[in-house]
Amino acid sequence: MQIPVYLFTGFLEAGKTKFIQETMEDARFNNGEKTLILLCEEGLEEYNPKKFSADKVFIETVENEEDLSPQLLKSLLKKHSAKRVLVEYNGMWSLGSLINALPEKWVIAQEFMFADANTIIGYNNNMRNLVVDKLQNCELVVFNRFNTKIDKMELHKIVRGINTRADIAYEYPNGDVDYDDIEDPLPFDRDAEIVTVQDKDYAYFYRDISENLSFYDGKTVKFKCVIAKNKELTSTQLVVGRHIMTCCVDDITFAGFLALGDEKTVSQFESRNWVMLTADLKVEYNKLYGRQGPVLYIKDIAHTSLPEEEVATF
What we know:
By secondary structure, the protein is of the alpha/beta class.
């Protein structure tokens, strides 16, 4: 049997406890099913189980990130015979620690990120890696303590630079909520005859293909990229792409695509050559992806100069 996990992330005093408290007071969610709440940090606000709509809710504290393990989580679940889990996660801990500790058949059902609208910009400036860690997979971002003096666009950009799919809510101290409706036009024209990507926009281009792969099936694309070759590739294959940095130097990764051409064309290029590539993109299975993915059929490829910034960013 799968165990659904509801994950609440964010930094200290961001509103996680309040939200979970209100959720457990709602009989539509808390209808008597045995529920385990894992508390990974203790703020000023505490839970009041007496107000929960049902009494089969059990709170356990995990004091240290190193304590997270499949054995611990399974033992706590068994202790209370719980059927689902809510996690109030410590904002200073890596989400990877939790993911690696989830026992088999524990599945994250929903993930929410909470932030104080008055302090998140500081966190983003000084602890960007932790902000990225909490934003990249969440479904909803709630900015608490929002007021009209705060620049909504600045908060919007923090989220959208990391996650384009999450809903964003701005909650005022009186409880009123605004939902984000700011449109984010892409910096390139996806409907053009040739989708041409400027050097500074490669990160957005790669992410958009990752999130909207089917849209690009049959499109012609043009962009500057670097060649990568290895022993797994045949004489008609190249990997083309660029390094992307989401938050900091430690998270730089190569984001590339498989490209196909004739042997004569492919033989003219070596690893680390920068090229301007025009190719037809088809979505199809390839063993290098291990699934369906974007395969570029080379129409034109030529050596070119390095971009102004070799590492692409958002």
